[in-house]
């Protein structure tokens, strides 16, 4: 059996976004024994999309449309496929209720275009969207399967793994159960991961192993196929144990929907610890990242943004003469910032950031130079030096994640 993937979106054709969905889905289909022999990219045009579907029908048994399920005028995938198959669009009651609840929560009226997200081609099997509002669907007509999937990766990937893969397994007559386990790592690049795990990757059969790049981190997806879930998990355990023996120092958690900030907040809650921060380089980004996690207010009461030497002295109690002597970007300043924040906020832990984001050097230090400090109640402050590559935004983003990772490992070691 073969499949053809059609990515829908003018923004893909213009190079404004990269079609990572195609590679992800092709990999998943290959694991099921389904060949992905052709892929198309089509702009937001109904006539051209209909022609792409017609072409795909000549070459594949499964035609998969990715994107174009939203509420805006250029989201045309559902309407085009329904018209192509000669069926109406009908409402999915659970999705409609979810839309209405969302509108009520936002205290906004439900507009007709938003209702489109809850519709699917009549007679199709609905693929539930656990993350977003637009449902997917699988239609069967004249021996072909037509699949609608959302475009945003955060909605697309869970729908593929949790909805589409089980559906295809059942359709193909496979009695086996597939179970995936996602491991998340920080502080190591994908090329190093693949080098360290080269023998496992080369020799994989069942379970399989795939690497994916996330912003400044790497995830590994282990997938096993067995008669039942317990047997599949038993296949995954030895492979994970081997991976952990090689990469355990970089590991921080499991799951597609997990993240470093979430892991940190969970660890703070488990240890009953409160954290604060003093930020120069990152200008509050570390605190904003923590504040995005629900329930963090119990463990994060606030912190400090101290860009200038004067504010470092005024807000944190640092000696401005000492800063001038050692430099704002230095081990001593990072430690003093963390110690000062800890005392001022009366917290259990404090993280500090100072450095040069770029684009050029500053304070005698090259761009990418970052000192991160960490102070704990009753202990002497520590500091780590980093040299991060990339743009100004990349240096700051990597610094935030490095601070989170160090904080998490500190909490886990207690």
UniProtKB/TrEMBL annotation:
<dbReference type="InterPro" id="IPR036425">
    <property type="entry name" value="MoaB/Mog-like_dom_sf"/>
</dbReference>
<dbReference type="Pfam" id="PF00994">
    <property type="entry name" value="MoCF_biosynth"/>
</dbReference>
<dbReference type="InterPro" id="IPR001453">
    <property type="entry name" value="MoaB/Mog_dom"/>
</dbReference>
<dbReference type="InterPro" id="IPR008136">
    <property type="entry name" value="CinA_C"/>
</dbReference>
<dbReference type="Pfam" id="PF18146">
    <property type="entry name" value="CinA_KH"/>
</dbReference>
<protein>
    <recommendedName>
        <fullName>Putative competence-damage inducible protein</fullName>
    </recommendedName>
</protein>
<feature type="domain" description="MoaB/Mog">
    <location>
        <begin position="4"/>
        <end position="171"/>
    </location>
</feature>
<dbReference type="Pfam" id="PF02464">
    <property type="entry name" value="CinA"/>
</dbReference>
<dbReference type="InterPro" id="IPR036653">
    <property type="entry name" value="CinA-like_C"/>
</dbReference>
<comment type="similarity">
    <text>Belongs to the CinA family.</text>
</comment>
<dbReference type="InterPro" id="IPR008135">
    <property type="entry name" value="Competence-induced_CinA"/>
</dbReference>
<dbReference type="InterPro" id="IPR050101">
    <property type="entry name" value="CinA"/>
</dbReference>
<dbReference type="InterPro" id="IPR041424">
    <property type="entry name" value="CinA_KH"/>
</dbReference>
